[in-house]
Amino acid sequence: MKFYNRELELEKLRNMRELSYSDHSRLTVVTGRRRIGKTSLIINSMGDDPFVYLFVGRKNEASLCTSFCKEISSKLNVFMPSINSFQELFLFLLQQGETKKFTLVIDEFQEFFNINPSIYSDIQNYWDQYRKKTNINFIVSGSIYSLMVKIFQNYHEPLFGRADMLLKLNPFSISVLKQIMGDYHPKYTNDDLLALYAFTGGIPKYIELLVDAKALTVKKIIHAICDSDSPFKDEGKHLLIDEFGKHYGTYFSILDAISNGRNTQPEIAASLGDKSIGGQLNKLVDTYEVIKKMRPILSKKGSQTVRYEISDIFLRFWFRYFEGNRTLIEMNQFELVEQIILEDYTTYSGKILEEYFKQQLIESKQFINIGSYWEAKKGSEQNEIDIVALKIEKNKAVAIEVKRQRKEFKPEYFDKKVQHLKNKVLPKYDIEQICLCLDDM
Question: What is the predicted pLDDT for the residue at 383?
Fold first, then answer.
């Protein structure tokens, strides 16, 4: 699959390179979850310029330095003495930067925590000494987001405040998904587009896997991700165990509960045997950014009307269908998993369609606040509106009901809910009422 999007990020990286070469060294930090395309972005930003690329694998320090020396010698065309510590190697690179202009990329930078944490102090020490008298475009990237934040944004850490630019990559926008579908499956339906969004969350690597497999229809996508050799089946585990560490069990149980519709703290706690989970929920929101707190639109920040939602669209799918059917997967019953997903697709995709339209509204840049509204009524009935969006124009809003098919929309019933919203929350607003469905994608 060809390289898509990232024009703004490419421009920022190229600007930092020019500043590094014309003025003095700069440090750029590129973060984002696994498979988001950090390495591809960095390499594409280089163009034809040579650069030193160091990948921090889980080896001992001496072995890493041996492989690093070969890369440095080749790319900088210099003789490398035998170096067994990263401290010496980094000093050597900075000394080269006194007479050479080059880009240094260190990938999976957070892995130094597992190899030798003192490396961060060594980098800080030498970087402070040499930054102003060298011309190195220094880029580091890492896919364990919580650790990368800790390294560069925790004031107790040695590299706090050293980054000249922090660049966090997000999933592809809806416009890019449409461009990809247009390039590789020109006759796609809106349901095909929705399936691509629902099962990949716009993550570039997952999309590339489906493009390479020529699986871009609803049925082909589901078949491809349920193949016995599919990398999707264990992807959520690989993605999160590195983040959570050895105590991942409770976090997984919380995410499993949320993926199955138990989205309030009492409901989640009950599903875990009334275990105390307040601390874990806060970490999932604030430290790992895997889930988000949802409140009715315009609610006060301290409002107790809270729902939890998995932030990552792919992880919602993975927990619901792969982790939720782990027994079948361990028994290699992939055809049954595929059947379960196919039978549930209409229901599941209807909920994801709400997220699609929220993202579409965000990308339109016509709204100052986008959310949902709900209010528990007596019994189990909810006075709920899928999407409420406040326009840039003063006192104008849109209330949206999302349905896969427009024929399912009941305007009279929706009007009553909107009038309640107006009376209770938006009394001064002119509220437009809309139904959005697959046809509007």
Answer: 85
The CATH number of the domain where 306 resides is what?
1.10.10.10
pLDDT band of 78, cuts 50, 70, 90: very high
Instruction: Name the pTM for this structure.
Output: 0.91
Report whether 109 contacts 141 (CB < 8 A): yes
In terms of domains, do 276 and 386 share one?
no
For residues 44 and 148, state if they share a domain. yes
Among 21-25, 33-37, 198-202, whose mean pLDDT is lowest? 33-37
pLDDT band, very low/low/confident/very high, at 301 (cuts 50, 70, 90): confident
Final residue of a structural domain among 116, 148, 168: 168
Taking CB atoms within 8 Å and a gap of at least 24, the contacts of 275-280 are: 275/250, 277/250, 280/250, 280/251, 280/254
Weakest-pLDDT range from 41-50, 194-203, 428-437: 41-50
40 and 132 share one domain: yes
In tens, the pLDDT along 373-404 reads 998 665 545 689 999 999 999 999 999 999 99
Mean pLDDT in residue range 230-258: 90
Same domain assignment for residues 324 and 381: no
- The total domain count for the chain is 3
Question: Is 52 within a domain?
Answer: yes
Domain end marker among 168, 195, 222: 168
Give dist(CA 97, CA 129) in Å, integer: 12
Burial class (CB in 10 A: 0-12, 13-18, 19+), 198: buried
Residues in the chain: 441
Q: Do 241 and 304 share a domain, yes or no?
A: yes
Residue among 303, 108, 286, 95 nearest 294 (CA): 303
Range of the domain at 327: 233-331
